[in-house]
Write a structure and sequence with these properties.
The protein is an alpha+beta fold. It is 44% helix and 14% strand. The longest helix is centred in the C-terminal third of the chain and has 29 residues. The protein is globular, with a radius of gyration of 22 Å.
Amino acid sequence: MASRARKKSTDVKSGLTDPPFDYTEAERQTLLDRARELKMARSTHAYVRGNTKKFYEWLAVSPVAKKLPEGPPVWICGDCHVGNLGPIASADGSIDIQIRDLDQTTIGNPAHDLIRLGLSLATAARGSDLPGVTTAHMIEAMVDGYELALTEPDNEDATREPNVVRAIRRRAVSRRWRQLARERIEDVEPVIPLSKKFWALSTDERIALKDLFIEPAVQETILKLNARDDDDEVRLVDAAYWMKGCSSLGTLRYAALVSIGGSRKSPAKHALIDLKEAVPSVAPPSPDADVPTDHGERVVSGAKALSPNLGERMLACHVLGKPMVMRELMPQDLKLEFEQFSSTEATVSARYLAHVVGRAHARQMNAEHRREWLEILRARRGGSIDAPPWLWLGVVDLLASHEGGYLEHCRRYALRAA
């Protein structure tokens, strides 16, 4: 790997030295906890996205918990919020909108993904200062899109693509390695500069990662992408601890830069690898569900079922005895961001995103199970909203709980920061 002699750089003009970004385990944890608290204090939407554990705790004591139906046990995302969907490139380079984060995946109740997505859409609508009636219309549209997926699971184009999705899909199609390198590591050179995002590795971590990348399974996983030559050699060039994410801050995360092939006539190509610790899921599994006990294997299995483009690029592995998930980052992998949108765009987006989630669930069900689940979703409709009562009441109740939790989080964060 590249030398760490570069970790301290001095500005000749000012004589100032950059921070070394070389922390002990305790220092790392303190910095990660602070970063997570800060991210979650930015908005209610950010708080919802970063607090999956509280979602399930509050759902369990919510009045709607006893009314929640049991859908067919399938692989669910477990943390199905808006930011966890987006363009995902397959091994052959095709691009589809799929679920992009499976840390919390398990074989469970698909109703949990519906409520989590509904809550996320509701907080995004509030962040855009949209009226409450728009949230009601979004939930109705969400149910419509999800049910359409159960009816026509193979029809990817059954719902209208929102403008924000169309724009980010176009951006994804045109992206190449240069954009990924500049965005992630702020450089196209074969090195990961130490910074506020990338920190120095310990000696044990360097040795463990060096050993990992010579494993045949790791080499094979990297070489099967983009029609690479099976005879090419994959070499670890550089690596760093990666401060990334929100709810996952505090768990092990590494960025690794590898070279692939190369000769005197043809320079080596490079790839950026994301290594993420696989932690226990907080989403409740279905009774008797056959979920892998190794959390890395669980994440990969869930990804293959829910997001085939992502699952075929992932590998469960271990680093320093901890279960990890490895995947190569592709320039086309992007996150959907709904910073501000109109009432119309919000409704269209809700229908489309629920359709994506519905197709991920539906392809795991046979025709009978899809029909039974559809009947449950359509049962006991009435009143002023065309959606299952448990879904609407669950979103409303959890929205209130998360609003209160967010304010209390901000109060505690402000006191600690004072």
